[in-house]
Amino acid sequence: MIKFVKDLKMHLLTGISYMLPLIIGASLVIAIPKLIGLGFGITSLDPYANQTKIFLRGKMMMK
Fold this sequence. Notes:
The protein is an all-alpha fold.
């Protein structure tokens, strides 16, 4: 039982250590354009996020 708990802890910590760089990288991919936009005076990126075209394109690919 103790070996199982140690193995489980080891696997969980390994998974977390593999996921952290991905989460941090994705956060930077989102944050850097926002900071650049703020530098140019753009306070909201909502007008640039037209999701209907992406949704329709994905829907057509599924057929």
